[in-house]
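Letters spell out the chain; backbone shape is given numerically. Both lines appear below:
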Amino acid sequence: MWDLRDMNLDDMEALMRGLGEPAYRARQLFAWVHGKGAVSFAQMSDLPTELRRQMAALTGIGNMEVVRQQRSKDGKTVKYAFELPDGQIVESVVMEYDKDRSRDRVTICVSSQVGCAMNCSFCATGQSGFVRNLSVGEIVGQVLEADRLGQQVDPGFRISNVVFMGMGEPLANYYQVLKAIRILNHPVGLHISFRRITVSTCGLVPQIRKLAAEKLPVVLAVSLHAARDGLRNRLLPINERYPLEELKQACQEYARLTGRRLTFEYILIKDLNDHPEDASDLGAFLRGIPANVNLIPFNPVEGIGYERSPRHRVRQFSGILERNGVEAVVREEKGVDIEAACGQLRRRLLKG
């Protein structure tokens, strides 16, 4: 049985042709599934009863059950654990950044895989290993479900930004992620601007080049965390396959083909990558790349022996970057009290 959340408009047009229906029915169906977040055929009131019966025999709407929900003390961050039809669990985090509704920004951090194979030493997700890629419908479904749940609390709630920074390496699930992005952007659906969608990667160079060739104006965020090969090999084993010089060339190509600045994520870990020389190395690496840097104090993870850098060292690191002409901001921390780092809630649920 096909999952309608897996389908883009072309797929739905093909479905309607097969059922002998006019093309405009596909736009109606797409609007119900990807715009209004319908969870049943009974909601699709402008589709004929017989057509709904036929679709129910051939298709379904992906089921994602919330098995745990945690809300931060300030009420601005909610973490969901979704159970998928095969019993696997993925996480999504919804973050509200402004109470002023006229300037509101609501961001969802979505997962692209169950687990992760990249084995980054600081990441909770990687500690559980890799299970499988998510389908298009499972990726899109996180956004649709979170949007629906938010509107139950506040009818004016609307997700405006999507970041692929949850569980998994998005570019290792390239085609499903790309199709999901286009569905989320479609004007008949949620119509989330490409410029409000961020794709994170730990540094898969061939896929960065492939994404650059798509020329989609999405934000590419590179999880860097070290600007020396030896240290980065220790933190992100993928660096042994695609060292920093290859990564830099791919990032320059992305900027040239898309016209977009890149974002570089840098987790500051006490006494490991937070020294003045680390900041100077980072500044040198970024020369020739239009970029900004998000400095992220390490979010403590059970079972991982790293500590977050003290505030004075974060300020010192940021100052060195600024003196090197690098735009750097310390990321606003969201959800530390609910273990919002990727994979933490899933690990807790798996442990029972």
Summary: Residues 348-352 have pLDDT under 50 and may be disordered.
